[in-house]
Amino acid sequence: MRHKELCALAVDWLRRPASRSGPGCSAAVSESGNYVNREIVDAIGWRAYEPLVGSVLVEVKTSRADFLADRRKKHRSNTGNGIGKYRYFMVPEGLLDADDLPEKWGLLVVNEKGHIRVVAGHVQMRRGDMDVWAHCCNEEAEKALLIQCLSRVGNPQKVQDSIRMERRLNSRLMRENAKLQKEIRSKCA
User: What is the Cα–Cα distance from 79 to 136, expressed in whole angstroms?
Assistant: First the structure.
């Protein structure tokens, strides 16, 4: 599988609910960077509700050499400078074992059909035990990345207003529909 395909799978996994072995992130993006620490993430998601409010990073590796080179990155040598409260490597089947991982990193293995298996990481733990997988992270870099993603949408307030307007319209139409159904039933009775 190619890097881009694995990044897309990582975003899907980030949004997957806990009931399906995912972190249940509300929002997730792939191949985005920030101007604070210059880290370009393969995929990152944010969970905005309890428990486990915060970020989940997925770094995609398609070769062992790429995995080994990752350790030399500036934001990896100082883990508090990196992005992601919880961190994972996503690799094709057979590339890595849990023993190869740096401390507190999870492992997602993808088979040739694109199915993801969680080998290690916080999503396998009970709620009270998950923090053993947590990293100190660069919240300023995460905010910068979020702001950059939001700015690409255009005017976030305009989008939010449009969504509100559509929801109001939908609600009004549902009420009208229910009223018409009631009228039809009374005429047919």
Answer: 7
What does each of the 189 residues of the chain score in pLDDT, given as a tens digit?
899 999 999 999 999 988 888 889 998 999 887 767 677 889 999 988 776 778 999 999 998 888 888 777 766 666 667 888 999 999 999 988 888 888 899 999 999 999 999 998 887 777 667 778 888 888 888 888 888 888 887 787 888 888 899 999 999 999 999 999 999 999 887
Rg (CA), the chain: 21
For the chain, give me the number of helices (H) and strands (E)? 5, 6
Instruction: Please check whether residue 77 is in contact with residue 178, taking contact to mean a CB–CB distance below 8 angstroms.
Output: no
DSSP state for residue 58 in the 8-state scheme: E
Cis peptide before 23 (omega within 30 of 0): no
99 — phi, psi (to 5°)? -65, -20
Looking at residue 119, its amino acid is: V
